[in-house]
Amino acid sequence: MQQWQSLIVAGNTAFERADYETAATRYRAACERALELLAEWPDADAVTAALCVSYQNLADTYLDQCRVRDALETYRRLHEVLELAYRNGNANRRKAALSASRRTVTDLMCIIQSHTLNSDYAKEILKDVTAFPRSLVN
Fold first, then answer.
1. Long-range contacts made by residues 4-12, C-beta under 8 angstroms, separation at least 24?
2. Which of 16, 17, 37, 99 is most deeply packed, by most CB within 10 A?
3. pTM of the model
4. What are phi and psi of 65, to 5 degrees?
5. Residue 86 half-sphere exposure toward CB, CA atoms < 13 A
6. Integer distance in angstroms from the first to the last C-alpha of the chain?
């Protein structure tokens, strides 16, 4: 988890300096590290939070560069990972993934609204990510 934290701190430092290329590189590496931790870290809530922070920071980096499509795609990827964590995890991982998934959908809806995205692409992503939690609770 320390390696992940170091990557996030480095990404945050670069982001604060508006060095978006470096920030994105660090956040992508943090995403990869969080994915590795997902299978092995015993604290489901902590590793799920690490995963979400990594992907959301990467999406924020894209948004600050007006790369809305990349940000939306990053959220889609996060949602896919959460869905897999839910389907393949124990009870604690399933609970953490479902909770994170719901928050991610809300965040994504806010991004789409704040950027007044009415494109077919935005609608497609929203449809994709809202199908997962609903399919599990119905």
1. 4/30, 4/33, 4/34, 4/37, 4/50, 4/54, 7/33, 7/54, 8/53, 8/54, 8/57, 11/57, 11/61, 12/57
2. 37
3. 0.85
4. -100, 10
5. 19
6. 35
Q: Identify residue 103 by its one-letter amino acid code.
A: R
Of 20-34, 44-58, 119-133, which range is least confident? 119-133
Tokens matching residue 7: 């990557």
Q: For the range 126-130, what are the long-range contacts, defined as Cβ-Cβ under 8 Å and sequence gap of 24 or more? A: 128/76, 128/79, 129/75, 129/76, 129/79, 129/101, 129/104, 129/105, 130/105
- The C-alpha atoms of residue 111 and residue 13 are separated, in whole angstroms, by 23
